[in-house]
Design goal:
alpha/beta, seven-stranded mixed beta sheet, four-stranded parallel beta sheet, 15 helices
Amino acid sequence: MLSFIKETQTIWERLAKTEKPIVLYGMGLGAEKILDVFAEFGISAADLFASDDFVRGQLFRGKRVKTLAEIEETYSDFIIVVAFAFWQEELLERIEQLGERHELYAPHVPVIGRGIIDFAYLTQYEPLIRGAYEQMADEWSRNVYAAVWNYRLSGKISYIRDVTTPKEDAYTLIWPGRDDVYLDLGAYDGDTVREVMGQAGGPLQKIIALEPDPKNFRKLTTFAENYPGDLTCINAGIYDRDTILTFANKSGRHSAVSRDGAGIQVPMRSIDSIMGKQPVSIIKMDVEGEERLALEGAKTVLLRDCPRLIVSAYHRNEDLFTLPLQIYKSNPAYRIYLRQHPYIPAWDNTIYAVKEGF
């Protein structure tokens, strides 16, 4: 077994064996996914509640949504299972305080796919998981990596809270500057362009921003009209080659390639095709599970330019080990860091890769 794994029981095993009533906190897609896993393990949710502002007599899977006060009046001792995602500091603190009063877990379910993390999964992928751990460039990255795997097994939020650092701190790894050429993949409405420009102290030399969703793209182009520099907007998604795919038209931050064939036709581009002979110094990719293919379509650029990379590593279970290994294989000059930014569950864990000696 991997030496950094501390847990001996999965969250699902814990919940299946408990005699305490299990109460779900939240409703929506996250709750749907968790209840589906409950069904696989024979776990029952005795009740569910939402924050007071969201309780308006609605039903979820046939159960009336209650307030926390109602739950505490009904049960003297119970387990809370958090079933929604959030990053706001006020909510993070509230959940921690709630965890001091009651036994509380926030189970990991993947953003894409339905596979759970258990000891069989760790055994199956042990060489790759260990290989990525050993590839981490500093002790903090190894701490984050170990914490995320222990969290995924246990659902204990203390693992990720103990290694969470602000996104601003991570910019000291890549140091964006005014001379950089920046490729923003999954640009949304220009939010990360603003962020990077703030870190650089002004507009960069050149920015190329891709956004596939038409409504988001309109927001991006509106932002670009007032951008005080060279910003090119491209209404396309990112892939391992130039093609056209069906895209789920969610009109939000998390628009993605369609998994069921429903949606709109969107042009897809590879990084090598976009950049051509133009050097690039920073690439950010948060492309809703297509990061592996995005890297596959960047072989020439990664080897030629060795750009600093900001890569989301949480959409698929395997991203945490396949992406670091893929980046290193693309160019062994890379040093690979991992950081966990504020989020429950353990989303927003991000790879930062820079050329050795940068």
